[in-house]
Amino acid sequence: MQRKRTPASFVHWAVVFLLMALVLPASLHAQETRGRITGRVTDTTKATVPGASVTVTDVSRGTTVSATTNEQGLFQVNYLLPGTYTVTVELTGFKKHIQGNVQLQISETRNLPVVLEVGGIQEAVSVSAEAVTLNTTDGSMGLVVDQQRLASLPLIHGDPYKIMGLATGLAHTGDPRLDRPFEPTHIIGFAFDGTRGNRSDLLIDGLPSTATANSGANANNAFTIIATYVPQSDLVQEFKVQTATFDSQFGNTEGGVTSMAIKSGTNRLHGSAYYFAEPSSLGANDVFGNARGQSKIESNSNRPGFTIMGPVLKDRTFFTFGYERITDQRPRFDIAGTSWVPTEAMRNGDFSAYSSQIKIYDPLTRTSIGGGQYTGTQFSNNVIPANRIDPVAKAILSYYSLPKNPGTNPATGPAGNISDATLAEQTKAYNTVTGRVDQKISDKNRMFGRFSWYQRDSHYDNYLGSAASGTLFQFISWQGVVDDVHVFNPTTVLNVRFGYNRFDRNSDMELPEAIGFDLTKVGFPTQYNTLISDVNRRFPRLDFTSGDMVSVAYGNDFRPVTSNTIAATLNKSLGAHTVKTGVEIRDYAERSRSTGNAQSGQYAFSNTYTRQNSASGTDLSGPAGLRHVPPWNALHHVDHAIPDIRRVLHHVGVLRARRLAGQQQSDPEPRPALRGRKAADRAPKPERLRLRLQLRPADPGDGPVEIRGAQ
User: Which residues pair with 143 in a beta bridge?
Assistant: First the structure.
């Protein structure tokens, strides 16, 4: 029977939520980047003065917030943007007290003792506030970075988080080469007071600005915290790095807390425009490039941008807008320096140049020597006959580039012949936009809203110059926050906030022809090609399990991480005490959809059947790069008259084909097109198909061909 909801039941849940907001511990409070001004008003005899009118004026915006001292002479004004304020205190029978130049920093509580002198209210006493040299309001330790430091200190690629390293107790754990705003793991890779790196919380305008770098507990750096958005430095009002003794409202991570505030518009229209450039003409070649005789590395960066802010309606409505773009090119070569590709002779089966280093044995000559072991006869002159090389192998090799240099030691092997110090990572577009609107609705209500977005598209690791290599790496960030402050009375203030944060980490093969790759181009049968949907099909995965021949292995994915934050904080003054309580709810969601090329077949090659002895052979003692027999041998075909699959598997050892159609974890949202693909192009339904095929030479001792299928 369905339970009927009565009005009383809804009242019940409303009361429960209200009690939660009032009694939950402060560790659940909303993280706050704004400050507050408090104080006690006394007369010249040090007696408290209740009922005095306190007006706090934002000098740059002309907005005011009012309060009244209680019976203890105390007042507090909450949720003030960092900036300069004037505090005016008035009461009949006393001179007006005006305290100017009150500097309020991010998350700061500024306490002002006010002494009223007896006199007419038309008289005024003006006082200029002094800068605070010692924090006496709480035990928080850390660093406040103000506009002066942001403007005067050099910032690499305009990244404001770089200054975090000035705080005591921080040690950088990220890769120092990855220092651009769109490299979110490394730019905030700091260990706080001995904790692990990338374990600190980040807040922008009180909104969590974090995601996880890798999904799953077995990922290389699982649950590493990264920055989902990095504002341009000219838009940052201030930020604070807290390293120890946090307020109880913090505690979502094991490390510290970095809180950042975005600038709000003022009554004065102003802004900035800039262009930073690192021209390649000012660079020089490195010592390794010179040693190889390679040309100078092309490395450059261009960063234009602007900000503008000002009033929409004077003293009431203000706007902020900023835009920045980065195009960048720098060297990047991620595989080992001993990596190699087959030479022209090797492509034709000719390994005679390395006969003294390694020997290749014909698997069709394998005979039993007892004890389950087999031996074979070496190919004449270490050359594989042309009729033993399969057309599929030749087709795949057409996607491999020829060597780019002789290698580290050409006499002993091709190791290092693909190394290229000039190979560049290109950031073809990084665009970032932030907009903010602040609104004073009334004397008792004010709010702001902010939207931020960036997209980074980088291309790198195109070692082979074809559809078989190259990575497209993409980050897309969205952030939105709406914040409202309501003053019920001089002693009661409520702050409510909602925030949305999404960070997409997308990676795929670089060239358009690699996506939806037609496997028949390399000789695979049409039946096999049609088994795999266009959205999942890529250039197939090739793994060489020994030596350093360049593999074709891409574990790509489309992984959006989202978080929704709802927070409410109630501030109440009770005599000489102040109570702050509230609730914060963070809803995290992480999804992943694989785009790895193993879904088009994963082929692993080894020297199992081309070495002298199946147990151990003298051919395993070659130099680096040829040691363990060139894995290229696995691409050579031992002919078997097996209909339909003879052009799928062609090697003299064990070749495994694994195909996983569909997605490991379906993504309920349409995937943003990396290459103009439509959401309609996605696979209609997730499906799983695993195909394992094992082919062995027609040797009586090896047994028959084995084909296994499972769906």
Answer: 241
